[in-house]
Automatic annotation (TrEMBL):
The keyword NADP does not apply. It comes from Aristolochia fimbriata (White veined hardy Dutchman's pipe vine). InterPro entries: Beta-prop_EIPR1-like (IPR059104), EIPR1 (IPR040323), WD40/YVTN_repeat-like_dom_sf (IPR015943), WD40_repeat_CS (IPR019775), WD40_repeat_dom_sf (IPR036322), WD40_rpt (IPR001680). One of its GO terms (biological process) is protein ubiquitination. Keywords: Repeat, WD repeat. The keyword Repeat applies. This is EIPR1-like beta-propeller domain-containing protein. SUPFAM superfamilies: WD40 repeat-like. It comes from the Eukaryota. SMART domains: WD40. Residues 5-280 form the EIPR1-like beta-propeller domain.
Length: 350
C-alpha cells in the first residue's frame, strides 16, 4: 500500500544519518538526531512530540565537534548518549551528557563524559546494554569487538574484553541480543557473526550476501531480521541459521536499515536508498503467535507489506521506534528531514 504525506515533519540544518529514541525519557516521546556536515559545526537535536501529537518541538540544540555517524541513547539516563564521529581521516567515539539546565542557555555545551578512543581501526557503532541500568557497553570497529566497563562517577571506561575478527573481515555494525545478554551479533562483509561475551569467541554465523543491518526480535528468542543491499529483508531462526525463515522483497534500491517494534510482535520497519520507509507484518508469513501483539493483522494482511511511506526526497538512513509510544516511529532522510508517523490506524491492541 503506497503512502501519502501524513507525518509530522522537522528539519535539521545539515545533512544527517542518525536518529535514536530517548528510551529513558518516561514522560515524553523524544528523539535525538545528529548531523553530518563536512564543513559546518555539527549539531545534536533533542526533539519531542507535543502532548497533542500534532507537532515536533526542539527541546534542545547542542553543538557537536565532528560528523556524527552513529548515535545511541543511554537506556537508563535520558540526558546521556553516545556518538561515533569522524573528522577527515580520524574517527572516535564518546559518551556525552546534556547539561541539566540546557533550556536556560542559548548555546548549551555537551559534556563529554567518557572517551572510547582506545581503537586501532575505524569504529562503527556503540551498543548499550539492551535494557535497564548496567555499566557495560560494546564498541564495534572494522576489525575488533570491545567490551567496556564504565565508571560514570570517575568518568572513565576500561576495556575488559576484546576480540579481533582479523584483517580478512570488516565489521560494519551489530546488535545486542535482548534475550541472551552474553550474545552480540556483528554484521561482517557478507555474513552475520555471533560472539559469546564471556569468552569473546564466535559461536554462530549466518552466511549471506551484503548484510547492511541486523536487529533481534525483542519478543521472540532466536529470531532476528537482516537488511541486505539488493536481496531485501530476511528473517532468521538462529537454531536453523543456514536458510532464512522468510524473505521480503525489500526496497527498490539498497535496503539500509531494519527494526523490530519494541512492543508488538513481528511488526518491522525498513528504510532504504529508494527514499521510502516500509511497514511489514512478519507474523503473516512466519506463523508466529500474536499474543500481546498486533490484533488480527496476520489475517487482515496476506501481503506482509502493510504500508509504504514515500513522502521523502532523499535516502532514509535513520529509523527509531518510540519505546514510550510503540505505535510511533521517527525516520530521518539524508537531507536532514525528520518525519514522525503513527501506525496506530493499522491495528488495535488485544
Amino acid at each position: 500500500m503506497q503512502g501519502v504525506a501524513t507525518g509530522i515533519g522537522y528539519g535539521l540544518k545539515y545533512q544527517a544519518r542518525c536518529i535514536a529514541d530517548v528510551k529513558a525519557d518516561k514522560e515524553h516521546t523524544s528523539f535525538l538526531a545528529g548531523t553530518l556536515s563536512l564543513k559546518e559545526e555539527n549539531e545534536v537535536h533533542l526533539i519531542r512530540l507535543s502532548p497533542t501529537g500534532t507537532e515536533l518541538i526542539c527541546e534542545g540544540l547542542f553543538y557537536h565537534p565532528n560528523e556524527i555517524w552513529d548515535l545511541a541513547s543511554c537506556p537508563f539516563n535520558p540526558r546521556v548518549f553516545s556518538t561515533v564521529f569522524a573528522s577527515g581521516e580520524s574517527c572516535g567515539a564518546a559518551i556525552w551528557e546534556i547539561p541539566e539546565a540546557y533550556g536556560q542557555s542559548n548555546s548549551p555545551q555537551l559534556e563529554q563524559l567518557i572517551s572510547l578512543n582506545d581503537s586501532t581501526s575505524k569504529i562503527k557503532c556503540v551498543l548499550w546494554w539492551p535494557s535497564g541500568k548496567h555499566d557495560q557497553l560494546i564498541s564495534i570497529e572494522e576489525e575488533n569487538l570491545f567490551l567496556w566497563n564504565l565508571d560514570s562517577s570517575a568518568k572513565t571506561a576500561k576495556i575488559i574484553a576484546r576480540e579481533s575478527v582479523g584483517m580478512l573481515h570488516n565489521l560494519s555494525g551489530g546488535a545486542w541480543d535482548p534475550h541472551d545478554q552474553n550474545t552480540v551479533a556483528g554484521t561482517c562483509d557478507s555474513s552475520v557473526k555471533f560472539w559469546d561475551l564471556r569468552t569473546m569467541k564466535k559461536t554462530n554465523s549466518i552466511d549471506h550476501a551484503h548484510v547492511r543491518n541486523v536487529d533481534f526480535n525483542p519478543k521472540k528468542q532466536f529470531i532476528l531480521v537482516t537488511a541486505e543491499d539488493e536481496s531485501g529483508i530476511h528473517i532468521w531462526d538462529l537454531r536453523m541459521p543456514k536458510v532464512s525463515v522468510r524473505s521480503f522483497p525489500g526496497h527498490a534500491h539498497w535496503t539500509w536499515m531494519v527494526q523490530y517494534n519494541p512492543a508488538y510482535n513481528d511488526l518491522i520497519l525498513s528504510s532504504g536508498t529508494d527514499s521510502a520507509v516500509n511497514l511489514w507484518m512478519a507474523a503473516a508469513v512466519t506463523g508466529g503467535d500474536s499474543n500481546n501483539s498486533v490484533a488480527d493483522l496476520s489475517t487482515q494482511y496476506v501481503d506482509p507489506l502493510i504500508h509504504s511511506y514515500s513522502d521523502y526526497e532523499d535516502s532514509v538512513y535513520g529509523l527509531a521506534w518510540s519505546s514510550r509510544e510503540p505505535w510511533i516511529f521517527a525516520s530521518l532522510s539524508y537531507d536532514g528531514r525528520v518525519v514522525v508517523e503513527s501506525v496506530k490506524s493499522y491495528f488495535s491492541r488485544k
